[in-house]
Every structure is written in C-alpha cells, then in structure tokens.
Amino acid sequence: MSGRADAPLRIAVPNKGALSEAASGILRECGYRQRRDTKELALTDHENGVEFFYLRPRDIALYVGEGTLDIGITGRDLLLDSGAEADEVLSLGFGRARFHFAGRPGDRTGWGDLAGARIATSYVGIVESFLAREGIDATVTRLDGAVETSIQLGVADAIADVVETGSTLRAAGLEVFGEAVMTSEAVLVARSGGDLPAGWEVFRRRLEGVLVARSYVMMDYDIDVEHLEGASALTPGIEGPTISPLQREGWVAVRAMVPRDGAQRLMDELYGLGARGILLTDIHACRI
Ligand SMILES: Nc1ncnc2c1ncn2[C@@H]1O[C@H](COP(=O)(O)OP(=O)(O)OP(=O)(O)O)[C@@H](O)[C@H]1O
Ligand SMILES: O=P(O)(O)OC[C@H]1O[C@H](OP(=O)(O)OP(=O)(O)O)[C@H](O)[C@@H]1O
Ligand SMILES: [Mg+2]
C-alpha cells in the first residue's frame, strides 16, 4: 500500500445486519459523514479524507485481506471464519455474541458428543477449524441462515451459530451444549503486515476517543482537604485528579474521569467519606 500516503483512507462498513447501525453510529460519533439512505453503497467524506464502502460484513475481511480496502468493521467471528489475511486491530464493544453448538435438549451434553454428527452452520470456517483442533470427526453442512430449522427438517443433528439473547434457539426448541466456541464483537480489521495510509492514525485515535468516552464518565465533587487523599485514591483519573481551590476554607473541588461501570457505587463511597456536590456527566469524545 506504499505510494498511497496521501490517498483517502478506504474503510469497509457493514451495509446491513446486526452490526450495520451501530457501526455507522460510532463513525458518526467520530465526526465522519455517514450515508442517510441504506441504498447508498459508497460515500466520500472529503473533509476528513476518508471513503466508506458499505459491504456485507461477511465479505469485509476478504476485501481488507486482499488490500482492496484499508480497514473495515466486521465481527470477530466473521474475520475468523473468512480465513482472510487480516488482523483485528481494535475491538469496538458492540455486536457482542457467543458462538455455540446447539441441538435438541438432552441429545448432546458436550463437544465430545459431536463425533459423527451432521452439523449445519453459516460459519463453516470456524466449525471446521474447531473440529480439526479438537480431533472430532463430523460432517459440516453450509447454510445461509435460519440454521435452527435444519434440525426439525432432519438435515442436521446439531447446529453451530451465533447466540445473542438465545430467543431464536428457544423458539426452535433447541439448547446450547458445551462451552462457547468463541465470543465475538465488532472489531476493526486491517491487512496482516500491511502499511496503512497516514490518515489511519487519526481514524484510530478518534475511535479510541469515542470508546473511552463510552466507558468513562466525568466525576466532580467537593471535599474537605483532610479527606482528599482517601478520595483521590478512589478517583485517580488518568494522569491524576484535577484539584481546584474552593472559596470555602479547607475544601477543594475534585474532577476525574472514572469508569462508567461502578460509578454509582463510587458516589456512595465518596459521600461516605464526606464528599458533597457529587456530579456525574457524560463525556462525548476525548483524546487521552
Ligand atoms: N443477534 C445477532 N444475530 C446475528 N449476528 C449477530 C447478533 N449479534 C451480533 N451479531 C454479529 O453480527 C455479525 C453477523 O452479521 P450479519 O450481517 O450476518 O448479521 P445478520 O443479523 O445475520 O444479518 P443477515 O441476517 O441480514 O445476514 C456477526 O459478527 C455476529 O457475531
Ligand atoms: O440469540 P438471538 O438473540 O436469538 O440471536 C441469534 C440469532 O440471530 C441470527 O439470526 P438472524 O436474525 O440474523 O437470521 P439469519 O439466521 O437468517 O441470519 C443468528 O443466526 C441467530 O439465529
Ligand atoms: Mg443473520
């Protein structure tokens, strides 16, 4: 990819399916233009030097692996299934799902029971490499979707598929068996060992900024200096909390980023230490 130093960064984005809306959503939060109409197949954001191509998530790792596109957003499971020469460079925290074997309740209890089974899946790559790794001899049938129905129709004895809420399995009267084969989420992929255009660093920083902003909140509180050390230990922030004087003698204002998870508990602890005027605010974007 050398010789493309000033060329726009070419990014693959899921055009439909489970990852599509959230992928466009995070890109919009990063300040990039996104298509308004789901029929649009490509869009150039001239101001930011980026081109977006809306593709099937299953094809994205292949385009990136071949170097046709620089980077893409797809599922970790789809990346693995594709066998493309592409690597995960950043996990994006949405589109979380587990990849499981499932069958009729009581038929099978663990991976060991897969020997000799007919397994239907849309993820043949993942299943075949799993079976090879575990030394299990079974038959794999590729289906495009609605794999749950294949058992009822007598085409398969077991299925291997993505499970999110489990409601599709329940509706089909099926149950998972064995451990999850893998856990998946949306990831950013880039060609293995490839050089990326200069714009890539800015793109990555913007995404990381939004991811941090999603998982952290800003906490402000007032506390008497006697308890400042204990309170600061609870809210160390990134480089250390910002401490500002207050007009009230012996009191200071403290400001620090804290993880969103557990922030309410932290507020209780700070209150218990004597902090008052404790405020939590959302962060929309940041550069750490
Ligand atoms: N509930 C879900 N159903 C399917 N895929 C999901 C779900 N949650 C997350 N994913 C992830 O989305 C990706 C599948 O993308 P895909 O476009 O095939 O979705 P889809 O919902 O099956 O779309 P379609 O059925 O239109 O093909 C995988 O990485 C998968 O792990
Ligand atoms: O655990 P759940 O929350 O029920 O989600 C998982 C289901 O969703 C997906 O199917 P999808 O709706 O994409 O249909 P498809 O099989 O035609 O792709 C996936 O293949 C499972 O069937
Ligand atoms: Mg699907």
TrEMBL record:
Feedback inhibited by histidine. One of its GO terms (molecular function) is glycosyltransferase activity. It is found in: Cytoplasm. It is an enzyme of class 2 (transferase). Its main location: cytoplasm. CDD domains: PBP2_HisGL1. The keyword Repeat does not apply. This is ATP phosphoribosyltransferase. It comes from Nocardioides lentus.
